Amino acid sequence: MKKILMSLCAVIMLAAGGAVSANDMQLGPGDMLKISVYGNPDMNVETRVNDVGNISYPLVGDVQVGGLTPNAAERKIAGLLESGGFIRKPHVNLIVTMMQSQQMSVLGQVNKPGRFPVDGKRSLTDILAMAGGLNAEADETVTLIRSQDGKTTKKQINLTDIMRSTDAAVNPDLQPGDVIYVDRAPRFYIYGEVQRPGSYRLEENMDILQALSVGGGLSPRGTDRGVRVKRRDENGEMQIINVKQDDHVKVNDVIYVKESFF
Predict the structure, then answer these.
(1) Measuring CA to CA, how many Å separate 197 from each of 59, 214, 257, 259?
(2) Sign of the CA dihedral with 129 first, then 133, 139, and 145 last
(3) Is residue 65 part of a domain?
(4) How many beta carbons lie within 10 A of that of residue 12, not counting itself?
(5) Does residue 17 carry a pLDDT above 70?
(6) What is the C-alpha separation between 250 and 156, in angstroms, rounded?
(7) Which of 45, 176, 175 is nearest to 99 (CA)?
(8) Are residues 77 and 108 in the same domain?
(9) Which residue has the higher pLDDT, 137 or 15?
(10) pLDDT tens-digit readout, 208-240
(11) From CA 39, how far away is CA 99, in angstroms rounded?
(12) Average pLDDT over residues 27-38
């Protein structure tokens, strides 16, 4: 599992190089624009798209740009300037200096959590790449939280499935306003007479013997006949369990190795 996640991290970082053209994104409220007209410096403005998707532009007044791509907005402004008789064949240039409307959040176990622009079509791995990829504590399952039509939905997505599948639909395209949460991988704890006591990542189907190996094996004073597990039951009560080497380790298990007296 760890090798698969390492491979996935490499794929995610490579995806960072596959940027989609900013001209594919749609403008919306809060976006900051820098607009100029070639040969007409008095028409150079910096403006913000208001809450209803409009900007105010010299000579033509309010212009509805919400929902348009930057290229489409350029053509619309140029058309208004020419049809109004203000400038003949204007060459309009529009640059988005700050993208506020088309953003999503990436939280949890990534290297650079925060808000990121959705500049065009972006997949889950694209956005994880923008967040610096997964950190060492990341789980292989992430949660996609989406609010649409007044309803909020949560979807679990297994990153290893993305690596194994040739179906592009397994790697979903994201939308503005989406929240991606990368949870911490499940852990277990080991202490007592082992070489490296501490907290460790719980791998799929890990058994007691494998867990002891992760902890560096028994110390010279340890005994495999003295292995106990502290585990909470369904009611949250702590139980102390005698285990065998091939028993499976569960999330948040505390494995204790006793000292041998012989």
Answers:
(1) 72, 9, 10, 14
(2) negative
(3) yes
(4) 23
(5) no
(6) 20
(7) 176
(8) no
(9) 137
(10) 999 999 999 988 888 878 789 999 988 888 999
(11) 27
(12) 91
